[in-house]
Amino acid sequence: MATLGVIADDLTGATDIAIALASAGHRTTVVLGDELPDGTAVGADAVVVALKSRTAPVEEAVSASLRALDRLRGAGCERFYVKYCSTFDSTPAGNIGPVCEAVLEALEEEVTVIAPAFPANGRTVYRGHLFVGDDPLDESPMRRHPLTPMTDSSLPRLLAPQLSRGREDVALVPWPVVARGVEAVREALDRAGAAGARFVVVDALSDEDLDVLARATEHLRLLTGGSALARGLAGPRPGARPAPAPPAGPRVVLSGSASRATQGQVRHALAAGGGHHLRPADLRADFEGTVARAAESALRSGGTAPFVVYATAAPEHVVDTADAPLIEGALAEIAERLVAAGVRALLVAGGETSGAVAGRLAPGPLALGPEVDPGVAWMVGRRNGEDLHLMLKSGNFGREDLFVRAWKGNA
């Protein structure tokens, strides 16, 4: 029976933290939406609920998160984790702050941590400022994100307007304290809580810092952060992880992400194989015909190189945000046609796109397969009685050659 319940704000984030928990020794199941089918928690140590709440209206995000919390508590979970993106994607109104606050209050807990750092992917926190590689968050490509532009790197300043009590609710444990070890961090957290802060930003420059934080927060019933902190939550099954290989057949990538990292991956894959550029104008003019041509081209691709159906491969391809649902709907329809034709493995790039595709395919609870890059792994569900392998990739994750390597089973 699962004892750890995770609420993730999108599907790729859910995949990401499932990888982290499995590496820490937790048998982990991912479910889509806030419903937990009967038996989901049986045989699992951790259950991750994948919502689509990152950019939803605040009230909807909070309501969905609290429903998920109720389901997880009903399934026997005793400890909880609110998972958000390592780039702290949010607007001045939320949704990170309101969701964390609502879950903390529902659990009647007094304090939790804010820990988005993911050093393996270049996300670090120093003096409360979030860095992406060498750049402060507000000087990274996230400054121009179409839905959640991040124009400040200070986590306390970003978080305070999202909380009912504002800045007085936020404290900081700086890196020199983290460097002193577990007891120093635990004492700092206790002092912050005693002073009235409920949300404590904790610096982290390395995986070792996050391991210190994981041990220092063993007494907390609720954690919040990116996925990297979860790697320090020791589970009962060290080294145990299924590793099914994706089956033979067309190697199809469906990419709706406009992130710089994914654009580079698309270009690299196009140089190695083939692709189909999905344009909003074509979809508006002839949705059915455009979708059919893309699916047919992918089915004919065969071979050992990926075939990429993509929305953007360069900055000039980035579409109006109003066209995003059109692109996501088209990629979901293409996915359904491919699976109906016998394709049993799909790589999907982008959080919103992954949610649209998985929502259409309805693969049920997802089991974790092999990790290919930090935060990127194959997942295995079921469709019409057969295994369906899905790699659901956050737009910012993965090395440039990921799409080519994904089917080779090695990192």
Description:
The chain is 34% helix and 21% strand. The chain has 411 residues and is of the alpha/beta class. The chain has a 12-stranded mixed beta sheet, sandwiched between helices. A hairpin with a 2-residue loop joins strand 17 and strand 18 (386-393). Helix 2 (58-74) runs parallel beside helix 3 (96-106).
- Ends apart, CA distance between termini: 32 Å
Give the biggest sheet: 12 strands, mixed
The Cα radius of gyration reads 20 Å
pLDDT averaged residue by residue: 93
Computed structural class: alpha/beta
The residue ranges in which pLDDT falls below 50 over 5 or more consecutive positions are: none
Q: Determine the fraction of residues in helical runs and give it as a percent range.
A: 25-40%
Brief sketch in words of this structure:
Helices cover 34% and strands 21% of the residues. It is α/β, with parallel strands linked by helices and 411 residues long. α2 packs parallel to α3 (96-106), α6 packs across α7 and α10 (287-301) packs across α11 (324-340).
Summarize the helices and strands and which ones pair or pack:
Layout (H helix, E strand, L loop, with lengths): L3 E5 L2 H13 L4 E5 L13 E5 L7 H17 L4 E5 L12 H11 L5 E3 L8 E4 L2 E4 L2 E2 L18 H5 L10 E4 L1 H4 L3 H13 L4 E4 L4 H10 L5 E4 L26 E4 L4 H13 L1 E4 L2 H6 L1 H15 L5 E4 L13 H17 L4 E5 L1 H11 L4 E8 L2 E8 L2 E8 L8 H4 L6
Parallel strand pairs: 1-3, 1-4, 2-3, 4-11, 5-10, 9-10, 12-14, 12-15, 13-14, 15-18
Antiparallel strand pairs: 2-16, 6-7, 7-8, 16-17, 17-18
